[in-house]
UniProtKB/TrEMBL annotation:
One of its GO terms (biological process) is tRNA wobble uridine modification. Carboxy-S-adenosyl-L-methionine binds at residues 95, 109, 114, 134, 185-186, 201, 205, 320. It comes from Alkalimarinus sediminis. This is tRNA U34 carboxymethyltransferase. Keywords: Transferase, tRNA processing.
Amino acid sequence: MDFFKIYQDLFQYMKQGPLNRWLDNLIPQLEQRLLENPHGDLGRWQAALNRLPDIQADNITLTTSAITANKAEALSEAELVQLTSGLMALSPWRKGPFQLFDTYINTEWHSDWKWDRVVPHISSLKNRVVLDVGCGSGYHCWRMLGEGADRVIGIDPNYLFLTQFEAIKKYCGPKSPIHLLPVKMEEVPSNLEAFDTTFSMGVLYHRRSPIDHLLELKSTLRKGGELVLETLVIEGDNEQCLMPEDRYAMMRNVWFIPSCDTLALWLKRAGFKDIKLVDLNRTTTEEQRATEWMTYQSLNSFLDPEDPAKTIEGYPAPLRATFVATK
Ligand SMILES: Nc1ncnc2c1ncn2[C@@H]1O[C@H](C[S@+](CC[C@H]([NH3+])C(=O)[O-])CC(=O)[O-])[C@@H](O)[C@H]1O
């Protein structure tokens, strides 16, 4: 993986603006991590990425449910096979969907449904510099660019998601101002104050210190910038928060699931203003399900078969809230 090459344009940009403090140590850190082999399958993923055929799209769509790359001329049979098998080798695909020419990547999640619930409530992304924390394959980053963002940076420590992102970028905009950095939120320097909008969707419950996560998000924003926070919640008042004894819906790394009132209080205590709950939604087995691109178990296996209002562990089934707040 050639970080200099994939982040060339980002570094040019960062050198000029407030992000430059982040630059100093980033490349050596990423390279050091590569030497330590961050994942046993990384070599296989990289080989699959390198085998993808070179196809120039002549039409890109970032504003419809599937992020789409199209070409007037039909692909050859060999190109189609190479493309589909290369993308399949990057499975499981969790966040999407994507349509690359004739290949539809039917991901585990209908991430477009989340986007449709969130986007009516946020400030316009036109000309904004945007951070998407825990961006997965980067699906929402493309939608943010489609909304007119000037530049989108996604961060996610998972190298499969980085490889998937690079595969999509190869066809949907190799030169577009959109990047995924394989780092955790905790590794982003504090007080960057560089972003106009910061998204954290589906990450808070993975953090052992949720208030620290909120403070870290705040420190990425310029004064007056907007936080878009989406996370699991429970029903209840501002004295309630669920800490699962062990797993929640089979997920091992879930720590805190607050009520909406508790979360609003956390945001207030973290120093945010204009805190608004803008959406509350129970996740359905239509939105999250196994497909040929993600063949492991999915939500229907994580719910109580006798009572789908409960997880298999007996907790309330996944309910997700979106909050918007200002720094
Ligand atoms: N400390 C961390 N820092 C950054 N990323 C992290 C961290 N811990 C986990 N992640 C990443 O956060 C993502 C959470 S998924 C949400 C995807 C998308 N946002 C979505 O809203 O669909 C969860 C869900 O599907 O609910 C994963 O990609 C992790 O690798």
